[in-house]
């Protein structure tokens, strides 16, 4: 089967999705480890709201078998965050944030300030940290679902466009259609038209999908899903770009066939 069209942008997008999928799993698991670490700390019955941290002694939080006089509970929390979330292999390449920037982006400015400016971890702050960490983990889980859907869409698009762009070499390379019968030209025209209609439907379906896509509120992701996902590629919409390219190829083929048919019909 001769093929004159290759969905190059879709094929370039596939490894991008695979990489982001792998990194998202790594981040999700890192947040899970951090949450487990924070949850392992024991607290006494005395609580202190972070808003009052400067007015009263904060409740000391002791880690079983690891508490020392030289390392405060929040220092251990900061260390755990560095050793989990900030230690994923792609952290520097993807984010390169300071501890303050990461905590602020993932949790909130208030939580980041409380973690960085105090020594003692209150039960209230511990609960806020655990809740925020679970939210960060869930946002990665939601992103994974979107990436799975995108991967499936890319696979289907590659298959469909490869099929629709196949067996056009004879039409596109023909310098003259004088050897083609009228029936052959009519069949070619119908085939090309049917492929154009399929492309139009693929484009409409993709547009509908893009309208529904929402990116979870993950760290540093505050724009459209495809803009986030494909910022390293020369095009933001690889599927639509390749569909449009194939439509142009089909139109070129159609024009050649139409001219040949018109010339044939005008012959005496």
Describe the structure.
InterPro entries: DUF7260. The chain has ten helices and no strands. With 268 residues, the chain is an all-alpha fold. The protein has two domains: 120 residues, no CATH class; 128 residues. Helix 6 packs parallel to helix 10 and helix 8 packs antiparallel against helix 10. The protein starts with 7 loop residues before the first helix and ends with a helix. About 10% of the residues have low confidence.
Q: Class by helix and strand content?
A: mainly alpha
CA radius of gyration is 29 Å
Classify the helix fraction into a percent range.
55-70%
Residue share in β-strands: under 5%
Structural domain tally: 2
Distance between the termini: 37 Å
> What is the ordering of alpha helices and beta strands?
HHHHHHHHHH
Shape: rod-shaped
The major β-sheet equals:
none
pLDDT below 50 for ≥5 consecutive residues: which ranges?
A: 44-69
Instruction: Count every helix, treating DSSP H or I runs of 4 or more residues as helices.
Output: 10
Average of the residue pLDDT scores? 85
Tell me the total number of β-strands: 0
Write the layout of secondary structure elements.
Layout: H1 8-39, H2 73-83, H3 91-94, H4 99-106, H5 109-117, H6 123-164, H7 169-173, H8 182-212, H9 225-229, H10 238-266
Helix pairs in contact: 1-6, 1-10, 4-5, 6-10, 8-10
